[in-house]
Each structure stands twice: as structure tokens, then as C-alpha cells.
Write a structure and sequence with these properties.
Blueprint (H helix, E strand, L loop, with lengths): L1 E5 L2 H8 L3 H7 L7 E8 L2 E10 L6 E9 L4 H21 L4 E4 L11 E2 L22 H7 L3 E12 L5 H13 L3 E4 L8 H13 L11 H13 L7 E4 L5 E10 L2 E9 L8 H15 L4 E8 L15 E13 L2
Parallel strand pairs: 4-5, 11-12
Antiparallel strand pairs: 1-2, 2-3, 3-4, 5-13, 6-13, 7-12, 7-13, 8-9, 9-10, 10-11
């Protein structure tokens, strides 16, 4: 019989956490309420889940760090159902009336679940930065009453140079207005570029779906380390005519693709065509280096950024789909 139990602080570090990055997040002194549960079968850990309240909406709860590995489909289904029920019961006791997941505490960390089984005409790669595809998880969630809340996608395009004529006008207009780019550089936890990234992120995404507040320490100690290894010559700030950072593109090469992972522009500049300006610059850089495929990564369906490569749909090679799920709590 599978047993479910809350974890103490020692278990978080020794048993619950799987990586150094997870240990750092699990032990970070966040202000929101949270709890963690383990599933044990004959004394062996076979599953885990976290539950926490949203820092911006006390009626919203999250489940995350959700893993199940019991060795059989029947036991896996039982384990998943029990873990989800444990998280839901605790969240209800804390006043939440609905739960969203998988979200590892907040969207600052890993969230979403791969939905598709692959609809690409040629084999598509698996990337370390994208949510994983986990066999059985969608069925377990649906079996426990969860419904798809939001959908996201990553799309790959061949020969993105063909997009350049469509963005040329915006690019030329921005240059004529005095906008320019410069590379992002990290030179320590207190570097000016980290401060600029934090400032732009805090402002650009504060109204985004499932946005949660975060401080500079959490941003630099928990979020930046997992991305710093991907920083490359293809990542850059957008500067206004006064030389101030007003946006950035976090783009990098991966398995022969240029991955456009994060595009952020300050709200007061979001109608200035700077996203098209940045896309044009990024694709031009890739073209110079001989990279002829691009991925628009982790785009929320219906978001404004979805339209940036809309004119290149005929060039699409493959699409990966992801989702977050939700359930009302009684």
C-alpha cells in the first residue's frame, strides 16, 4: 500500500530535491505558504509533490515538483491520485479555491507539461529548456478532475531569412529613431546588466498570466544560474536613443537552431515595434553565423508575440505543445 506523508526540512534537502537547483529553490525563504508531500511504497520514495499558495492571489494554489515512479501503470495512477489529493486538501485548508499546475512554486521556475506526442514531419529534438513529456501524467490529471487551462507552443522554422523583408521596415524605423542593441554580459551577482534584466522583467511581465512577484535576490540566485550557461553573443539589450536598456532578447544557439526564448520590452515601449526590431537583429546575427533554423520558444497561445513569425507559417518544421491545468477545489 502506498503511504503519503508531509516532508520536513531535512527530507526536502535529502529526499525530496533531485538537483542542486531544486535544493536552492526548496530551501529559499519565500514568504508564501507551502508544503511538500512524499509517496512511499514499502519504505521507498516513489513520488513527490509540492503545494503552495500564490503570493499575488491567496485563492489560487499551485502544485509542482510532481513526480511518480512506482514501476507499474496501476500503482502510478494510484500514487498520482493520492499525491494530488494530498496537495489539494492542504491548499483547501489554507483558503485556496482552485489549483493550477504543474508549476514549481511560480512561473519563475519550471512549469507546464508537454502535451503533444509529436506532429512534426521530421524528427524534432528535445531541448533542456522546454517542459518534459511525461508518460501518463495528462491522463492522471484528467482522471483527478483537472482541465487544460492554458496552452503554449514552441515552433521551429526553416530559412528564417525569408522573414527579414517583413521586419525590415520596423527595423529601419527603429534605427532611424535612435534605437540600437548591445550584448548582455554577466560580471557577478551585482552587475549592472543583471540589475537591468531584473528591472525589465519586473515591469514587462507584471501583468502576465500567472505572474508572481519576486525579489532581486531570488532572481539572481535561483533564476539566473540555470540560464547563464545559455547566454551567448545572440542575447542582447535594446537601448533607447538615450542609451537606456528598455528591452532584451534572450536568444541562443541549440542543436543547430537559434532559440528565441525570452523577449521583454518595457510597457511604455511596447508599441514602438521593438519586438520586430529585435527579431530582425537576432535572425540577421544567426544568418551571419550560418544558422538557418529558428525556434520561437514557449509562446502562450494568443499572446501578442505569437504574431512575430506569423508570416513564416509556411516555413514551419515542427511544433511542440505544452499546457498548464487547473481544478476547482471544494
Amino acid at each position: 500500500m502506498i503511504q503519503f506523508q508531509e516532508t520536513g526540512q531535512d527530507s526536502l534537502v535529502k529526499t525530496f530535491a533531485r538537483t542542486e537547483g531544486e535544493r536552492a529553490a526548496l530551501t529559499y525563504p519565500f514568504e508564501f505558504k507551502r508544503n511538500h508531500f512524499l509517496a512511499l511504497l514499502q519504505g521507498t520514495v516513489v513520488g513527490r509533490i509540492s503545494a503552495n499558495l500564490s503570493a499575488s492571489d491567496p485563492k489560487r494554489g499551485y502544485f509542482g515538483f510532481f513526480d511518480v515512479n512506482c514501476g507499474s501503470d496501476v500503482l502510478n495512477r494510484e500514487c498520482a491520485k493520492g499525491l494530488l489529493a494530498s496537495a489539494e486538501l492542504w491548499l483547501s485548508s489554507q483558503g485556496a479555491d482552485h489549483v493550477v499546475g504543474p508549476v514549481n512554486y511560480s512561473t519563475l521556475f519550471e512549469y507546464r507539461l508537454r502535451l503533444d506526442e509529436g506532429n512534426d514531419p521530421e524528427a524534432s529534438p528535445v531541448f533542456s529548456w522546454e517542459p518534459p513529456r511525461r508518460k501518463g501524467f495528462i491522463a492522471w490529471l484528467q482522471g483527478s478532475g483537472y482541465e487544460l487551462l492554458e496552452e503554449y507552443h514552441s515552433r521551429a522554422f526553416r530559412d528564417p531569412r525569408l522573414v527579414l523583408p517583413f521586419s525590415q521596415r520596423r527595423y529601419d524605423e527603429a534605427l532611424a529613431s535612435g534605437f540600437k542593441t548591445r550584448p548582455i554580459e554577466f560580471s557577478g551577482a551585482e552587475s549592472p546588466d543583471l540589475r537591468a534584466l531584473f528591472r525589465i522583467n519586473s515591469s514587462s511581465f507584471q501583468e502576465s498570466f500567472l505572474s508572481e512577484p519576486f525579489d532581486f535576490r531570488a532572481y539572481t540566485t535561483l533564476n539566473i544560474p540555470k540560464h547563464s550557461s545559455l547566454l551567448s553573443e545572440f542575447s542582447f539589450f535594446i537601448l533607447n536613443p538615450r542609451g537606456q536598456e528598455v528591452g532584451y532578447f534572450f536568444t541562443f544557439p541549440d542543436q543547430g537552431y537559434l532559440v528565441c526564448k525570452t523577449i521583454a520590452v518595457l510597457p511604455e515601449y511596447q508599441k514602438a515595434g521593438l519586438a520586430s526590431f529585435g527579431i530582425h537583429h537576432a535572425i540577421s546575427l544567426a544568418n551571419e553565423k550560418g544558422i538557418n533554423r529558428v525556434v520561437s520558444a514557449l509562446i502562450r497561445r494568443g499572446a501578442p508575440s505569437e504574431s512575430l513569425l506569423s508570416k513564416a507559417e509556411s516555413l514551419m518544421i515542427w511544433e511542440h505543445r505544452y499546457g498548464v491545468f487547473s481544478k476547482k477545489l471544494l
